[in-house]
Write a structure and sequence with these properties.
Double Stranded RNA Binding Domain; 8 strands; three-stranded antiparallel β-sheet; alpha+beta; 434 residues; hpI Integrase, Chain A; elongated
């Protein structure tokens, strides 16, 4: 190979003849340093030598970025590595790998909660469940919503959800200080809402900590820091329930509601002890008038089947069929979603204070005890876990459960002063054109 001393003019003027695929110009000063050019491409400094009996060539870089002295110094450095028995290509690959690792680490540190949150909604799930319950999934979305949408009720736009400010934080930056600062700000608007948002965010952190790609970025216990826990409102368990003497007034107030669907729904809650969302989602396909059974969605299991008691059967038979849902509504959901306003009217009529919709579930349990039904039967109808019962619990068949639910229903109707023929067959369902 002919060699010449590299000068700025020789380097800038070097071109590859059009009939060749590539051409080289070799430096006489630094061993192994060359300039490679192609007809279409830009020239680049290269280093060529022999390593362990085989030719080795490494690209150094463009003359626009490397001065001649720097390129010569790099060539000498690469030759020294070969003289020391080291392969420069391995060192370059290692350097590139280290650089890529640093870039990946920097990108990971910059990963925000908002980038991971949609993946949590899509792939996260509670223990022993295949997916989120629809209502809880909707709550998760609402908690992190940006707001600014027109309110469904009233004037103005919605405010951001409590978790929305956290979405902008780097996941690796969620620590005790940032979480405490966030919670204190949200608690000004409502402590209990902020506390519920915190519980949801703890679930998100647990999920992240269980994923290999996020584990090193997540402190799963940050939400349990003493400074935060001490600020949480006391978790006072509600105990509201109907007293026996209040049942007649409550029942009369509910019966007088102008919204007949809400009236039936509220009475059904008291007569079954079901959770409000479980009963609201009841479809006609899951009402068996022939064999007197109801199959409803269940918080613990996927579904549970309970007997359809006589009064319940009669009451449901009076409801119009305007869609798939038993407790239908003209709203977007197609079913009843919020009966608090109707319930408040009934409570006002009965002069009862502080009874929540969930209090009707507690009322069923207490009135069931007063009716003499076994704790296990009450728990099975309500959908509690077996371990939550006082007696040695074993699931009863629908037929074995039926007399106990009818016993509870008869007791409630007796307290309410309802005259009812339990042996009467349910009336024919009235079909209403959509």
């Amino acid at each position: 190979m002919a060699k010449i001393a590299f000068t700025a003019g020789r380097v800038s003027g070097f071109k590859c003849p059009p009939e060749k695929k590539q051409a080289f110009l070799w430096d006489a000063t630094a061993p192994g340093l060359g300039l490679r050019a192609t007809p279409a491409g830009k020239p680049a400094y290269v280093f060529q030598s022999v390593y362990q009996g085989k030719d080795l060539r490494i690209t150094i870089g463009s003359p626009a970025a490397w001065s001649i002295p720097d390129a010569q110094a790099k060539a000498r450095e690469l030759q020294r590595l070969i003289d020391e028995g080291k392969d420069p290509r391995d060192l370059k690959r290692e350097a590139l790998a280290v650089h890529a690792e640093k870039q990946a680490a920097a990108a990971a540190r910059a990963l925000t909660v908002g980038e991971v949150w949609p993946l949590y909604l899509e792939n996260g799930k509670p223990k022993r469940r295949d997916a989120w319950k629809p209502r809880y999934r909707a709550d998760l979305e609402a908690m992190a919503a940006p707001g600014g949408e027109k309110k469904k009720r009233g004037q103005g736009t919605t405010r951001p959800g409590p978790l929305y400010p956290l979405l902008a934080l780097p996941l690796a930056g969620v620590n005790e200080d940032t979480l405490k600062s966030w919670y204190d700000r949200e608690a000004v608007a409502g402590k209990h809402q902020a506390a519920r948002a915190l519980m949801m965010f703890r679930g998100f952190l647990r999920w992240c900590a269980a994923r290999p790609e996020y584990r090193n970025l997540t402190d799963r216990d940050v939400g349990k820091a003493a400074a935060i826990v001490e600020s949480l409102p006391s978790n006072t368990r509600r105990t509201d329930a109907l007293e026996a003497a209040q049942v007649p007034g409550w029942w009369a107030g509910v019966e007088q509601l102008s919204n007949r669907t809400a009236s039936a729904y509220l009475r059904a809650l008291l007569l079954t002890g079901a959770r409000r969302e479980e009963l609201a989602a009841l479809t006609w396909a899951n009402v068996d008038f022939q064999w007197r059974k109801l199959t409803i969605a269940d918080k613990v299991e996927t579904t549970r089947t309970i007997p359809l008691s006589p009064y319940m059967a009669q009451m449901l038979a009076t409801l119009p069929r305007v869609g798939p849902y038993v407790f239908a509504s003209t709203g977007k959901a197609g079913r009843i979603t919020d009966t608090r306003a109707s319930h408040a009217k009934a409570l006002q009529s009965a002069a009862i204070d502080g009874l929540t919709i969930h209090g009707l579930r507690r009322s069923f349990s207490l009135l069931g005890e007063a009716a003499g039904a076994p704790a296990g039967a009450i728990a099975q109808v309500m959908g509690y876990k077996p371990s939550a019962t006082a007696e040695g619990y074993r699931p009863r068949s629908i037929d074995a459960l039926r007399p106990f639910l009818e016993q509870i229903e008869a007791h409630i109707l007796s307290l309410a002063g309802v005259q009812f023929d339990a042996k009467a067959a349910p009336g024919a369902l009235r079909v209403v054109a959509g």
